[in-house]
Specification:
Layout: H1 4-18, H2 29-32, H3 35-46, H4 59-62, H5 71-77, H6 87-107, H7 118-143, H8 151-164, H9 169-181, H10 208-218, H11 220-242, H12 271-296, H13 298-324, E1 331-332, H14 339-343, H15 352-358, H16 366-371, H17 377-390, H18 402-412, E2 416-418, E3 423-426
Helix pairs in contact: 1-3, 6-7, 7-8, 7-13, 8-12, 9-12, 10-11, 11-13, 11-18, 12-13
């Protein structure tokens, strides 16, 4: 929940914005405007609020570079044991996610392949795909070196879990590290980088005005539905195959083939070899699926594996999208950016006890994860509480229910425009 001081600040700003910019001639307000109102108007003029507000009430737009602590200051505020990995505990959570997913997969043998059973198959896909997202998060933790001090065990678990979900483990490990290094950087950001109104080639992603025109021609509701479909149904494969939503620094990249005709800027040094190793795991999984399909048929494989995988992909895109995007959360120019400032633009949200249990709190403790991605998830709640208490102005938590936040983002986060202070705010649809 937002503190009282934040609410007072938001109300004062809203009052200032409602006040007339130029008093009417002859109005008593010309000579009797209180000094506090003049100061509030000056502040509002210097720091204009975005067009729309989320549950953050414009907090992220008011945070400046000097409000962001150093990594050492955060490290000093978080209990030391939060940075320590416990291999046994990590393996327990890996087994938990595998067991829940496996149990649901086993239950699918009881569902008949009939038209009348379609609702059961839909429920199965939702439940199993949601459970398998926990396996995805475990592999994600391995990729960040937050799973174990035993590097071989860590990469083995991550490689198996991600390959089983058709994710190239090492490829994604590197591109995701780039995302962490440049969170909400308008040029070097790796995921969910928005188009810019009047965007400059090579510095920004152009085409913001075209996207705004599309949203206006389609209408708000239809465009919101289009955004949800594009992100949740198509977004993940489009990202792996073409680097969709990445910043202009990397061009059209591919997580399975780190060579031309794709842009190779994302894969320096050793990474083309690692990309090849990752692709082998995915190819092996595809071969297993093909062999299974020859035995039971493609429809059965889709129903028991393909449809749940689509749900898992939806979850991971939704998490990433909402962790870094909302109507009053800016992107940053190179001059405004620092690693810690990008990390503190992550947003924690309320996913509820069940999803936090299944997904290892990946959405409700993401600020701490971006500040130091080696914090194991089972310490992330304690680390989050310490960060929130020590740095309340910089820490972002939006209490909006997730489904409402997703619709707000899909309907309104279309394109950004550059402000005079080097922040990019979302343009009004």
């Amino acid at each position: 929940m937002l503190g009282r001081s934040t609410l007072v600040c938001a109300l004062a700003t809203a009052t200032a914005l409602r006040a007339p910019a130029v008093p009417l001639r002859g109005s008593a307000a010309v000579t009797r405007m209180p000094p506090m109102m003049v100061a509030a108007e000056s502040t509002a003029a210097a720091r204009p609020e975005p067009m729309l507000l989320s549950g953050l009430n414009g907090q992220a737009m008011r945070v400046e570079m000097e409000d962001i602590p150093s990594k050492k200051e955060v490290r000093d505020a978080v209990p030391e044991h939060c940075f320590k990995k416990d291999t046994v505990k990590s393996m327990y959570y890996a087994a938990q996610s595998l067991a829940v997913t496996g149990a649901l997969f086993a239950l699918s043998r009881l569902i008949p392949f009939t038209a009348a059973a379609l609702p059961l198959w839909a429920a199965y896909a939702i439940a199993t795909g949601t459970a398998a997202t926990g396996m995805w998060v475990v592999a994600h933790e391995c990729g960040h070196a937050a799973f174990s001090d035993n590097r071989f065990l860590q990469d083995t678990v991550g490689y198996i879990y991600h390959s089983a979900l058709l994710v190239p483990y090492f490829s994604w490990q590197h591109s995701h590290a780039v995302h962490h290094a440049h969170t909400n950087h308008i040029t070097k950001g790796e995921t969910h980088v928005p188009p810019v109104v009047g965007g400059r080639e090579g510095i920004e992603t152009p085409g913001g005005e075209d996207e705004l025109a599309k949203s206006r021609s389609m209408g708000g509701k239809l465009y919101g539905a289009y955004q949800l479909f594009a992100h949740l149904a198509v977004g993940w494969p489009a990202y792996l195959l073409f680097g969709a939503t990445g910043g202009p620094a990397y061009g059209v990249s591919n997580h399975f083939w780190a060579k031309k005709p794709f842009n190779v800027a994302l894969w320096p040094g050793k990474w083309p070899k690692k990309v090849g190793q990752s692709s082998l795991g995915v190819v092996a999984m595809c071969a297993l699926l093909a062999a299974w399909a020859r035995q039971v048929g493609s429809l059965a494989v889709f129903a028991r594996y393909g449809a749940p995988l689509m749900v898992t992909n939806m979850w991971l895109v939704l998490y990433t999208w909402l962790q870094h995007t909302d109507v009053d959360v800016p992107h940053l120019s190179a001059g405004q950016f620092s690693y810690m400032r990008g990390a503190f633009l992550s947003i924690d949200r309320p996913y509820g006890k069940l999803l936090d249990w299944l997904h290892h709190k990946i959405g409700s403790t993401h600020v701490a994860h971006h500040i130091d991605c080696t914090i194991p998830h089972y310490h992330a709640r304690e680390a989050t509480d310490a960060i929130k208490a020590a740095f309340p102005k910089a820490y972002l938590y939006d209490p909006t229910p997730v489904h409402k936040a997703a619709w707000r983002v899909a309907s309104n986060c279309i394109a950004v425009k550059l402000r005079d202070d080097g922040k990019y705010e979302w343009a009004k649809p």
